[in-house]
Specification:
Elements lengths: L2 H16 L4 H8 L39 E10 L9 E5 L25 E5 L5 E7 L10 E7 L6 E7 L9 H4 L4 H5 L2 E2 L2 E2 L8 E4 L2 E3 L9
Parallel strand pairs: 1-9, 1-10, 6-7
Antiparallel strand pairs: 1-4, 2-3, 2-5, 5-6, 8-9
Helix pairs in contact: 1-2
Length: 221
């Protein structure tokens, strides 16, 4: 959270307390912004690949490495109250460096990169953290660079969304990203790609926390 955001929230809380706001209102002000929902799209795998671990840059049985700029996507799965969500299954899928998905219905453009897994999954521990090694997403006709996410598991209201690259010029014209009307919610989907602290392994580090609904029906109230 930026410093102005922290100050704004602090001022709000101080003012609310001075005006005699109820504990419920103060608690609501402390809640994190829910990650907006987005379309799953047409290219979620029809059949999960045999190799579906959290490293999409290598495929079991293949000697090569995926084309593209190697990126570590990291973050935590949290509820609105900032509590980590354990045992959440985090899935990601995206197109390869040529703009092709590993999906039988994606038949345009160049041939698929045989060294790119295209899909991966990870199960969070008690800290709610997840990690994927993949490539920096690339644009294709009609879409800004993006990575699809789905989060599911026991006691979780499933969430499907997409992550975008901060500074990508295609963001301004992407119909799905701009369908999120609230500026703060839209900004939550657009993440910085920072130089990796381990450049020998990856070029970029992309931090992306996902915030789920805190709902007693799903054991999160």
């Amino acid at each position: 959270m930026s410093e102005p955001s922290r100050l704004s929230r602090r001022r709000f809380l101080l003012l609310a307390a001075a005006l005699g706001a109820t504990p419920g209102l103060l608690a609501a002000a402390e809640r994190l912004l829910r990650t907006p929902r987005q379309s799953r799209g047409p290219f979620y795998p029809l059949e999960l690949p045999l190799d579906s671990d959290n490293d999409l840059t290598r495929v079991k049985g293949q000697a090569g490495v995926a084309r593209g700029e190697i990126t570590d996507v990291v973050g935590r799965i949290l509820d609105e109250n900032g509590r980590p969500v354990a045992k959440a299954r985090v899935e990601i899928w995206q197109c390869d460096a040529t703009g092709r998905y590993h999906h039988p219905h994606d038949v345009g453009g160049e041939g698929r990169d045989p060294n790119f897994q295209g899909y991966g999954q990870y199960l969070t521990g008690d800290d709610g953290a997840y990690r994927f090694r993949t490539i920096k997403p690339v644009p294709y006709p009609g879409r800004a660079p993006h990575i699809h996410f789905t989060v599911s598991g026991p006691g979780i209201e499933p969430l499907t969304t997409q992550m975008y690259v901060r500074g990508a010029p295609e963001n301004a014209g992407d119909f799905l990203l701009n369908a999120v009307r609230d500026p703060a919610a839209r900004a939550a989907l657009v993440v910085p790609f920072e130089p990796s602290p381990a450049p020998a392994e990856a070029r970029w580090l992309a931090p992306f926390d996902l915030v789920l609904v805190a709902d007693a029906r799903f054991g999160r109230g």
